[in-house]
FixH family protein
Amino acid sequence: MQKTNSKSTAWYKQFWPWFLLVPLIVTVIVGITMLTLSIKYFDGTVNDNYYKEGLAINQVLQKDKAAAELNMAASMKVDELTGEVVLSLSGQLKSWPDKLKLEMVHPTRAVLDYGITLSQVSQNHYRGQLEKIPQNFWYLDISPVESDDWRIKGGSKFPAPEGISMKAGSQ
């Protein structure tokens, strides 16, 4: 009869327990990380009143159509250091509005959206001040403050040293 000299090693020094436990441990760590990120960077919810939003889109499209019929266009320059906006309008308007509304719309983060008012400095030239100097790509909406009859929309990557041109109906 042969004696076997078997020394049992502790479980944590063996291969198979770790082979089975490591994927479970990694899964728990990744799950906790994903939960933490989803709570910290909440991106909002889907609008639950989609029917009302769907009806309102016709009014927005009507503003775009009205701007295209008036052959509206805008040329805008943003000072990279101060954030000053200088805008020139062209089109077949009977009278130029006293104030314009410039909406800065971030493509992915709604909490970054903001708007400013541009004041008329001469017939079709307007001036305003941005809250912060934009970086990367932003959508732009220009419309009169008082009447809200038309809208020019466009987009640009910032900084834009050469200026930004937008034409109604071109998007």
